[in-house]
């Protein structure tokens, strides 16, 4: 028994020493010294990117192959529905893989646990598993795929919510870091410069959206979207500068950039047949459209990757000190984000509607996509304002409770 404990201790120490060398060395050493959790996250991101590209290829160029499969003949939307259904099948395989990884790695806390080895290694087995899980959905009846498509709406919404919290947490952390006693004097000028640039870009973006997307006075919906974005920017700034909040200009400036981007994305997602989108903006298969599509796919992967490794923004006890043998990020949360991200990229490729016709080299186009972006924008502003106001409300309630007890 003593020998077993000694062997376990030796294995733990060797694992900690090897990972300590990786942390002290240059970043490329993570790829030279075998499997490790730092290298693993990039491999998972690469697999996710390949799955995204496979789903796009199935949607745009997979009609001939899909028509050969007897089980897909029940699709009532013709070729377009076949393409959307093919995306859902690829998404289902990707979701199943990452959800299985979530179930098998959730709760991993130490680097020497067997589940850590499963997360960071066993790549031949996991690649074969992912290939098998990608192929199996193509033999599942169409009715089951349609049910998965409905569930994917909810999963994609969860992904957007997680991403929203992660972005707001990062902006808040950056502001707190710049306002801390350690960096306050050094970062004062940088903070003012960044805040000024953020507000200039926000105002410029709003003006350009008025010019580009409201060519006629009848474009009331676009006028409402852009004007309400300006109102949200003013509201976030006013709350942030309130004496009881005193959060400065940096966080509302960065949040303004985010909501302006979401508004722009929403209007860009409107069907190009509308009169409120200039003819020059109508999507066509040219180099600009292809570049925009590639950038959008890479943005999905980067957003999923960066959100997945940011599990600390969902921890309620952040003051706990991390030990040397603790995992660098939450494995279960990482895979859960990728699982919901699989549903999210499916919704973008089919325009949030399995019966929606999508042209080649397009992504996230349709009225459903536009309204999802707008609701996400409004929710982002509400969550940010609540994060500013909630501590004050909590203090008032605590003070009232203390006064009643005394």
Structure description:
This protein has helices spanning 2-24, 37-61, 63-67, 78-105, 114-120, 123-135, 142-179, 184-213, 220-240, 250-268, 287-308, 331-349, 367-405. The chain has 13 helices and no strands. The protein is globular, with a radius of gyration of 24 Å. It is mainly α and 406 residues long. Helix content is 71%, strand content 0%.
List the helices and strands and how they pair.
Blueprint: H1 2-24, H2 37-61, H3 63-67, H4 78-105, H5 114-120, H6 123-135, H7 142-179, H8 184-213, H9 220-240, H10 250-268, H11 287-308, H12 331-349, H13 367-405
Keywords:
disordered N terminus; 71% helix; 406 residues; 0% strand
In short:
This protein is mainly alpha-helical and 406 residues long. 71% of the residues lie in helices and 0% in strands.
Silhouette: globular
Helical coverage, percent range: over 70%
Number of E-type strands: 0
Q: Count helical runs.
A: 13
Radius of gyration: 24 Å
The secondary-structure element order is: HHHHHHHHHHHHH
How does the helix and strand content classify structurally? Answer: mainly alpha
Span of the ends, CA to CA: 58 Å
pLDDT below 50 for ≥5 consecutive residues: which ranges? Answer: 1-8, 27-31, 70-81, 279-285
Kindly estimate the percentage of residues that lie in beta strands according to DSSP.
under 5%
Mean pLDDT: 78
């Amino acid at each position: 028994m003593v020998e077993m404990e000694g062997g376990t201790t030796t294995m733990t120490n060797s694992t900690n020493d090897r990972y300590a060398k990786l942390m002290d060395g240059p970043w490329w050493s993570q790829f030279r010294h075998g499997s490790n959790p730092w290298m693993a996250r990039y491999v998972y991101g690469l697999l996710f990117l390949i799955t995204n590209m496979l789903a796009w290829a199935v949607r745009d160029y997979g009609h001939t192959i899909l028509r050969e499969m007897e089980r897909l003949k029940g699709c009532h939307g013709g070729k377009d529905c076949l393409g959307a259904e093919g995306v859902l099948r690829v998404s289902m395989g990707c979701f199943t893989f990452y959800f299985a990884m979530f179930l098998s790695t959730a709760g991993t806390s130490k680097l020497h646990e067997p589940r850590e080895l499963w997360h960071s290694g066993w790549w031949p087995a996991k690649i074969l598993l992912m290939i098998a899980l990608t192929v199996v959905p193509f033999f599942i009846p169409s009715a089951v795929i349609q049910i998965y498509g409905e569930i994917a709406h909810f999963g994609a919404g969860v992904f957007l919510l997680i991403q929203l919290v992660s972005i707001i947490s990062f902006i808040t952390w950056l502001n707190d870091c710049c306002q801390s006693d350690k960096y306050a004097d050094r970062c004062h000028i940088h903070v003012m410069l960044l805040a000024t640039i953020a507000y200039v870009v926000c105002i410029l973006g709003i003006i350009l959206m008025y010019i580009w997307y409201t060519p006629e006075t009848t474009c009331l919906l676009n006028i409402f979207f852009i004007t309400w974005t300006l109102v949200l920017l003013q509201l976030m700034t006013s709350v942030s500068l309130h004496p009881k909040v005193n959060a400065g200009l940096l966080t509302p400036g960065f949040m303004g950039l985010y909501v302006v981007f979401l508004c722009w994305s929403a209007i860009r997602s409107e069907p190009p047949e509308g009169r409120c989108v200039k003819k020059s903006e109508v999507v066509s298969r040219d180099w600009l459209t292809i570049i925009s599509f590639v950038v959008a796919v890479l943005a999905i992967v980067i957003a999923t990757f960066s959100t997945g490794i940011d599990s600390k923004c969902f921890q309620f006890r952040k003051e706990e000190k991390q030990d040397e043998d603790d995992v660098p990020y939450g494995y279960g949360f990482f895979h859960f984000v990728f699982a919901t991200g699989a549903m999210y990229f499916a919704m973008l490729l089919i325009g949030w509607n399995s019966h929606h016709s999508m042209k080649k080299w397009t992504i996230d186009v349709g009225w459903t996509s536009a309204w999802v972006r707008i609701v996400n924008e409004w929710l982002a502003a509400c969550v940010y304002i609540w994060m500013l106001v909630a501590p004050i409300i909590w203090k008032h309630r605590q003070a009232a409770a203390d006064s009643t007890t005394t």
